[in-house]
Design goal:
This protein has about 325 residues and is of the alpha+beta class. It is about 35% helix and about 20% strand. It has a six-stranded antiparallel beta sheet, covered by helices on one side. A five-stranded mixed beta sheet has the order 1-2-3-4-5. The longest helix has 18 residues. It is elongated, with a radius of gyration of 24 Å. It starts with 10 loop residues before the first helix and ends in a 5-residue tail after the last helix.
């Protein structure tokens, strides 16, 4: 049977699962699971259980709020910020303005994310925690998998399917081989891990000639390996981009993009385009030269790797990436 959560991939779907689980705290089949997870989130004491509970979605725009009384007659308010693939973007401090006004409850706050929490995101959480009364605790994919792995064989189909979904995410995040597809969030997590854990560490000049970054491309259905020539600080310059969706099924495609460069760099961009046209390693065609009558419009995509490139093995893929970084640096030689 196909897994429901492979189709219900949005954060709202995960919110619904967690609320369903919590609200079944007194169910004879899965109540133990709900109490165990709530106890982990809220540091229940020995033998402490939920006595009554209500979940609320979007209270003060917080994903899930849980208002409960325990068997020890404690009133506890749990606030849960739920993330699947996106990052925290300074929401927590805004939520804290409301949470800090909650009285007569013990306050617990969980940042629940089915991915690893990267250092930049951890710094934002630390910043929020430096200003509030109770800290946000991180519960990321390693914690989530550790908890739900016990229920992979549960007789409750919803619970076992969520546990299997979490297992697949965990395996993708730990991936170290080139994915074949780029169709869904599981694939994108696998690409992100592959770029971060295999490709970037293999690039010998990374850190001396160029900088590499890996991220999910906003709302777009692909993961990006981004390469920028060093020596320009925070200034926007043309960069190399390799997208997961362009490299599935053993294909390979790299692009040189000029998003965000300053108008004063248009003459340099024209020289770059001439360098690309003169290179046997790039194609430079169908450039968009005009946009709604705007003067001095410059194309955003200026170079593409040759058609028909393929990479079956990791070694072939890494070699193509390294070669196209060198090709990119060559055509960027005149950029001042």
């Amino acid at each position: 049977m196909k897994i429901l959560f492979d189709f219900a991939t949005k954060e709202l779907s995960q919110d619904a699962f967690l609320r369903w689980l919590f609200e079944n705290y007194d169910d004879p089949e899965i109540g133990e699971v709900a109490n165990r997870l709530l106890g982990k989130f809220c540091d229940f004491r020995e033998n402490e259980k939920v006595q009554s509970l209500e979940t609320v979605a979007q209270w003060c725009k917080i994903d899930i709020s849980v208002w409960m009384t325990t068997s020890l007659n404690r009133k506890v308010a749990l606030f849960l910020e739920d993330k699947t693939f996106s990052n925290e973007h300074n929401q927590l401090s805004i939520y804290d303005e409301h949470i800090d006004n909650v009285k007569n409850h013990g306050i617990c706050k969980i940042f629940y994310k089915t991915d690893f929490v990267e250092e930049e995101e951890k710094n934002r959480i630390r910043d929020a925690n430096s200003k509030n009364i109770a800290d946000w605790k991180i519960f990321d994919i390693k914690d989530i998998y550790s908890f739900f792995a016990d229920y992979l064989l549960s007789t409750n189909m919803i619970l076992s399917q969520y546990a299997e979904h979490i297992r697949k995410i965990h395996d993708s995040i730990c991936n170290s081989t080139k994915p074949k597809k780029s169709d869904n969030n599981i694939d994108l997590l696998a690409w992100k891990s592959y770029f971060n854990n295999v490709v970037v560490p293999s690039l010998k000049e990374n850190g001396s000639k160029y900088w590499c970054g890996v991220w999910k491309a906003g709302q777009y259905p692909y993961v990006v390996l981004y390469i920028k020539k060093l020596g320009y600080g925070e200034r926007k310059i043309p960069y190399l981009e390799i997208r997961s969706r362009d490299c599935q099924d053993n294909c390979f495609k790299a692009k040189i993009l000029c998003y965000g460069i300053d108008v004063k760099d248009i003459p340099q961009q024209r020289n770059l385009i001439e360098n690309i046209k003169a290179s046997p390693n790039w194609e430079c065609k169908r450039l968009r030269q005009h946009k709604r009558g705007a003067e001095n419009y410059f194309p955003k995509q200026v170079g593409f790797s040759r058609d028909g490139l393929t990479a079956i093995t990791d070694e072939e893929f890494i070699e193509l990436v390294a070669n196209h970084i060198e090709f990119y640096l060559q055509v960027m030689k005149d950029w001042e």
